[in-house]
Automatic annotation (TrEMBL):
GO terms for cellular component: cytosol. InterPro entries: PfpB_PPi_PFK, Phosphofructokinase_dom, PKF_sf. Keywords: Allosteric enzyme, Cytoplasm, Glycolysis, Kinase, Magnesium, Metal-binding, Transferase. Residues 88-453 form the Phosphofructokinase domain. Pathway: Carbohydrate degradation; glycolysis; D-glyceraldehyde 3-phosphate and glycerone phosphate from D-glucose: step 3/4. Regulatory subunit of pyrophosphate--fructose 6-phosphate 1-phosphotransferase. It comes from Mikania micrantha (bitter vine). This is Pyrophosphate--fructose 6-phosphate 1-phosphotransferase subunit alpha. Its main location: cytoplasm.
Length: 614
C-alpha cells in the first residue's frame, strides 16, 4: 500500500474541475513580502491553571501572539521578514481524515516555493508511524496536482496514534534531526495539537532546531477557543451530513410511519449534531452537553423521546427524525461510570469475557440490563485518549429499542394512542469525511498552509496557525499565530468525598463542548418546539461549488461573535489612544477621569479573572 501514496489520482470531471480551483489568499498574505507584528505575551484563559502550564512548558508558555500584515500596511511595530533561506519542512497527518487536509499541504508547498524554490516539503507516509520510521514523500507540483481541493488523506495516509510517550517523542526528534528539518507541521485536532505543544517544548529543551507548528484540522469542530474560530473539515462534514439528514426527513414525511434515529460523528462534543440540526431542521436532537449538565439517566432520555413521540402522535404524526451525537453515551452518568469500571479492569489485564463478573453490584446490574450487542461494544478497549470507542457503540439502536419498549408499554396502558412504533437506525460516521471539501474548507485550509510557512519564517516554535473573522469574505480574514500553550487548560478533579481536596490533571488542549449559554444553543432552543411539532424540514442540497450556495458558511460560525484577535487589536488601539490623550501636561479633569475609568475596569477584570471558568 505504501507504494500507492502520492500516485496521481484518476479524477472525475467534477474532481478535475475542483482541482483547477485556486483559493484566494487574504491581502495580508499576498505577494512575496509579509510583515509580522508580535503582540503581548499570552496567558492561560483559566488563571488557576497558569502555574501548572508554565511549569510543564517553561520554554514555550507566555509567548506573544503573532499577526501577519501586507507589506505596505501601516503597523508601526511590524517587522518585515526579508531573508528567506531554503528550508526543509516535514508535515504529518494525525488523527482521522478531515475534508480539506490536502489543501494545507498544497498551501504550505506553494508558500515554500514562492519564497525560495529550493525549499523542500516532505510528507510523512502513514501518519505518526511514518514520522517515527522516517518514511517520507517529497511534495512536488506533480505530486500535489491531483490532490488539490480533494477529500481524504490518501496523499500521505494517516494514523490516530499519539506522539506522547518518551519513546515516541524521541523517535520524532531523531527523525527531524536525521532529515535535517527546519520545521515540523502537525495537522490534526485537540490531541494532535497537544502533542505538537509537547514536541515543541521538548525540542526547545533539547536544543533541536526543528520548529513545531500545529494546524486545526478536525471534523469534530471541537478545537475551538479564543484564538481558533473553526476547524478545517467541519463545514464540509456538516453540509454533507445535513443533506443526508434532510433526505431522510423527506422520506419520513413521505412514508409517515418511521422514526429515524441518526447518530452523528463528533466525539465527545455535539457541535456536528447542533450544526446539522440548524441546517436541516430534524424533529429532535439530544445533546451530550445537555444530558451531562442535567445528569439525565438513560431512562430520562428514553422518557423524553417517548413523550415527544406521544405528543406528535396526538397530532396524527407518526414519523420523525432524531439526531444523536456519538458522545451521548459517555455523557450519561451511570453509563460513564460503568465504562470507567470496564476500562479500569481492561487496563489491569482482565479479559473481556471475565469483566462482567468483576464489576461492582450496581455496574453489573446496569451491564446486564443492556442488550447483548451493547454489552459487547462497551467491552471494547478504549481509545488512546482513554475514551470509549464512541464510533463503535450503537447508541441509536439502544435508544430505539428502549423507546419501542416504552411506547408498547404505554400502548397497552392506553396512554399512547398512535400507530405502531417503527424505528430505523443510521450512523453517519464515514459517509462525509472523505467528501470533496466545501469551498470554505478549501480556502481555509489553503490559507492555513501559507500561514504555517510564515510562522516558520518568523522563527516561531509551538504555535498554531490561526485565521479569524472567518464569517466575513476571505479578503477580510485576519491571519496570525497563537502559542498552543495559551489554548491549554488544566482540569480539576475531586479527590475523595467530603475532603474538598482537588487534584490537577495535565495541561492539554481540551475539546470545546457546546456552550449551553451561547448564542448557537440559544438559537437551537428558540426553534426546538417548532422543529419538534411542525415538520419544517429544510433541505440544503448537496455541496455547492458555484452559484448561490457556494459561499454559505456554517450557521454556528455566523451566529457566534468570535473575532477575538480583532478585539485584541481594538483594545490595544484604545490603550494607545489613552496614552496619547493622557500625557504629562494634560488637565487634572482628564487625569481624574482616566484614573476613575481605569480603576473601575481593573476592579471588574480582577473579579472576572479570579473566577475559574466552569
Amino acid at each position: 500500500m505504501e507504494s500507492d501514496y502520492g500516485v496521481p489520482r484518476e479524477l472525475s470531471d467534477l474532481q478535475k474541475n475542483r482541482s483547477l480551483y485556486m483559493p484566494e489568499l487574504p491581502p495580508c498574505l499576498q505577494g512575496t513580502t509579509v510583515r509580522v507584528e508580535f503582540g503581548d505575551a499570552t496567558a492561560a484563559a483559566d488563571p488557576s491553571g497558569a502555574h501548572a502550564i508554565a511549569r510543564s512548558f517553561p520554554l514555550t508558555y507566555g509567548q506573544p501572539l503573532a499577526h501577519f500584515f501586507r507589506e505596505k500596511s501601516k503597523v508601526a511595530n511590524a517587522q518585515t521578514i526579508n531573508v528567506h533561506p531554503a528550508v526543509r519542512v516535514g508535515l504529518v497527518f494525525c488523527g482521522r481524515q478531515s475534508p480539506g487536509g490536502h489543501n494545507v499541504v498544497w498551501g504550505l508547498h506553494e508558500a515554500l516555493k514562492i519564497h525560495n524554490p529550493k525549499s523542500v516539503l516532505l510528507g510523512f507516509l502513514g501518519g505518526s508511524e511514518g514520522l517515527f520510521a522516517q518514511k517520507t514523500l517529497e511534495i512536488t507540483d506533480d505530486v500535489i496536482a491531483t490532490y488539490k481541493n480533494q477529500g481524504g488523506y490518501d496523499l500521505l495516509g494517516r494514523t490516530k496514534d499519539q506522539i506522547r510517550t518518551t519513546e515516541q517523542v524521541n523517535y520524532a526528534m531523531v527523525a527531524c534531526k536525521a532529515l535535517n528539518l527546519d520545521g515540523l507541521v502537525i495537522v490534526g485536532g485537540v490531541t494532535s495539537n497537544t502533542d505538537a505543544a509537547q514536541l515543541a517544548e521538548t525540542f526547545a529543551e533539547a536544543k533541536c532546531s526543528t520548529k513545531v507548528v500545529g494546524v486545526p484540522v478536525t471534523l469534530n469542530g471541537d478545537l475551538k477557543n479564543q484564538f481558533v474560530e473553526a476547524n478545517v473539515g467541519f463545514d464540509t462534514i456538516c453540509k454533507v451530513n445535513s443533506q443526508l439528514i434532510s433526505n431522510v426527513c423527506t422520506d419520513a414525511l413521505s412514508a409517515e410511519k418511521y422514526y429515524y434515529f441518526i447518530r452523528l460523528m463528533g466525539r465527545k462534543a455535539s457541535h456536528v449534531a447542533v450544526e446539522c440540526t440548524l441546517q436541516s431542521h430534524p424533529n429532535m436532537v439530544i445533546l451530550a452537553e445537555e444530558v451531562a449538565a442535567s445528569k439525565l439517566t438513560i431512562f430520562d432520555i428514553t422518557k423524553q423521546i417517548c413523550d415527544a413521540v406521544q405528543a406528535r402522535a396526538e397530532q396524527d404524526k407518526n414519523h420523525g427524525v432524531i439526531l444523536l451525537p456519538e458522545g451521548l453515551i459517555e455523557s450519561i452518568p451511570e453509563v460513564y461510570a460503568l465504562l470507567q469500571e470496564i476500562h479500569s479492569l481492561l487496563r489491569q489485564g482482565v479479559s473481556a469475557d471475565k469483566i462482567s463478573t468483576q464489576l461492582s453490584p450496581w455496574a453489573s446490574a446496569l451491564f446486564e440490563f443492556m442488550p447483548p450487542f451493547i454489552r459487547k461494544q462497551l467491552l471494547l478497549h478504549p481509545e488512546s485518549d482513554d475514551s470509549a470507542q464512541l464510533s463503535q457503540i450503537e447508541t441509536e439502536k439502544l435508544l430505539a429499542e428502549l423507546v419501542e419498549a416504552e411506547i408498547n408499554k404505554r400502548l397497552k396502558e392506553g396512554t399512547y394512542k398512535g400507530k405502531k412504533f417503527n424505528a430505523i437506525c443510521h450512523f453517519f460516521g464515514y459517509q462525509a469525511r472523505g467528501s470533496l471539501p466545501s469551498k470554505f474548507d478549501c480556502d481555509y485550509a489553503y490559507v492555513l498552509g501559507h500561514i504555517c510557512y510564515h510562522i516558520l519564517a518568523a522563527g516561531l516554535n509551538g504555535y498554531m496557525a490561526t485565521v479569524t473573522n472567518l464569517k466575513s469574505p476571505s479578503n477580510k480574514w485576519r491571519c496570525g499565530a497563537a502559542p498552543i500553550t495559551a489554548m491549554m487548560t488544566v482540569k480539576h478533579y475531586g479527590r475523595g468525598s467530603g475532603s474538598g481536596a482537588t487534584t490537577l490533571g495535565k495541561p492539554v488542549v481540551h475539546p470545546a463542548t457546546v456552550d449551553l449559554r451561547g448564542k448557537v444553543y440559544d438559537l437551537l432552543r428558540q426553534n426546538a418546539t417548532r422543529f419538534l411539532m411542525d415538520d419544517i424540514y429544510r433541505n440544503p442540497g448537496p455541496l455547492q461549488f458555484d452559484g448561490p450556495g457556494a459561499d454559505s458558511k456554517a450557521v454556528s460560525l455566523c451566529v457566534e461573535d468570535l473575532d477575538y484577535m480583532g478585539r485584541i487589536k481594538e483594545l490595544n488601539e484604545y490603550l494607545d489612544k489613552v496614552r496619547t490623550m493622557v500625557k504629562p501636561g494634560c488637565s487634572q479633569d482628564v487625569l481624574k477621569a482616566a484614573l476613575s475609568a481605569m480603576s473601575s475596569v481593573t476592579d471588574i477584570l480582577s473579579v472576572m479573572t479570579s473566577q475559574r471558568p466552569e
